[in-house]
From TrEMBL:
It comes from Panicum hallii var. hallii. GO terms for molecular function: abscisic acid binding; protein phosphatase inhibitor activity; signaling receptor activity. Its main location: nucleus. It is found in: Nucleus. InterPro entries: Bet_v_I/MLP (IPR000916), Plant_def-hormone_signal (IPR050279), START-like_dom_sf (IPR023393). This is Bet v I/Major latex protein domain-containing protein. It comes from the Eukaryota.
Amino acid sequence: MATELNKSMEGTLCHEFETGLPAAEVWEVYGGLVVADLIPQLLPEVFSKVELVEGDGDVGTVLLVTFPPGAPGSQTFKEKFIKVDNENYVKEALVTEGGFLDHGFQKYLVRIEIIGKEEKTSIIRSTIEYEVHHEHANNPPVVSTSGLATIAESITKYIKEQKGLE
């Protein structure tokens, strides 16, 4: 019985967005630090500021992300890139302090995959993997891909505008 109480709750949420753009073009933005510069400009209501703490956009890069004023809970969180795969277009970022970790999460990982389909289109698959502390299992924190979905749509629109496609 005592071991049951110490179990954490785990889960995965996934969102897919079809871009109408080649995977390589989408990865140009998502693969490095460009996406971190664009999000506060395109979506200040999601993140008001994203600052580079250390790194160059590759594995080990740490970002300090600031929520807009008035957002509930922690105003900032740090995330670290733990995987950047430029061949398969996969990036993983793990929240290392603040934000979601202050709301009962033990682990909060975001994986972005750019999946090429036919010649001219790709899918942005945004996945959240999480673990919730056992003491929050009865009243788990809310997990949602809506922010990632909004980012995928805005980045896609931005790329299309830059290419003169919108």
